[in-house]
Design goal:
Layout (H helix, E strand, L loop, with lengths): L3 E6 L6 H14 L3 E4 L16 H11 L5 E3 L10 H14 L4 E5 L4 H4 L9 H20 L4 E4 L4 E5 L11 E4 L3 H10 L2 E3 L5 H12 L4 E9 L3 H12 L6 H4 L5 H7 L5 H7 L2 E2 L2 H13 L4 E6 L5 H20 L2
Parallel strand pairs: 1-2, 1-11, 2-3, 3-4, 4-7, 7-8, 8-9, 9-10, 9-11
Antiparallel strand pairs: 5-6
Helix pairs in contact: 1-2, 1-13, 3-5, 5-6, 6-7, 8-11, 12-13
Amino acid sequence: MSMQLGYTLMTEQSGPKDLVSYAVGAEETGFDFAVSSDHYFPWLDEMGHAPNAWVTLGAVAQATSRLPLMTYVTCPILRYRPAVVAQQAATLQLLSEGRFTLGLGAGENLNEHVIGEGWPPVAVRHEMFAEAVQIIKELLAGDGYTTFHGDYYAVDGGRIWDLPEGGVPIGIAVSGQQSVQLAGEYADVLIATEPKAELGETFDAAGGAGKPRVGQMPISFDTDKAAAVTRAHSLFRWFGLGWKVNADLPGTAGFEAASQFVREEDVAGSIPCGDDVEAVIEAARAYADAGFTHLALVQIGGDQQELYLKWTKKSLMPAWREAFGS
């Protein structure tokens, strides 16, 4: 199966001007698409950044001309209201001339606690998320005015006045049965961070057959493997905590505490580190085998992006095309 190669605009490790520059570089390098995180906080203080993803993507849309773009992912249940997310998505689709996909997820306490309304239990979050997706879909459909009264949200005569022709594709991030069922019903794209074939199988059964599946995988490129491992441990040691932990921790101090016993060898065992192209291809193959059509790589380290782009163009991309045929 072919699988497209994506670039991740990691807002937690770079400022907005640099992110725009990296997006331009990714397009010039030949990446098939780019995704952007949407955070209010970095995972760890060492990462050091968290610019607004939507403002940054607006600039990226103007600075690039070919690269498909996606939020990976935006949470529409607290920090953003669903009606506002729909308006933002429509505007960005116009600015990008049809290159944008709205990736949605149920969010993390890390980013949502800032508005001071608490962090609901997971079952409630999923109920809120389902309502939010319904509202966004209806507003983006542009069928007159939208009035909605649910258990969590109300919309009073909403309408988006600047709608892109063809609408905005919606991706939904999944981790378990409930979210996959919702994605099968409402999503144009499946989003997942783990190469689990059963997610795609359930998505197919719920109505998602034939639709794209987008994954994400971190790597730490460096010609010095030891330096790559050290950097991955410093910035990404939280990665192996698992979604149930990551979604509920309220701040960077919590991630620091939860990951304090993670060793460098633990990180090196789960994230490809160094400049071994075959190690990256082998790790990516798990996603291809699980039915993913797109995989966005995360290069760990905001100050390593330019070197990573050069290595990708020279070494990784030819191997990727041979392995995955995209």
